[in-house]
Amino acid sequence: VQLVESGGDMVQAGESLRLSCVASGGIYRIGTAGWYRQAPGKQRELVAAITDDGRVNYAEPVEGRATISRDNLDKTVYLQMRGLKPEDTAVYYCTMKVYSNYYNSDDYWGQGTQVTVSS
Question: What is the pLDDT of residues 77-89, one digit of tens each?
Answer without folding.
Answer: 999 999 999 999 9
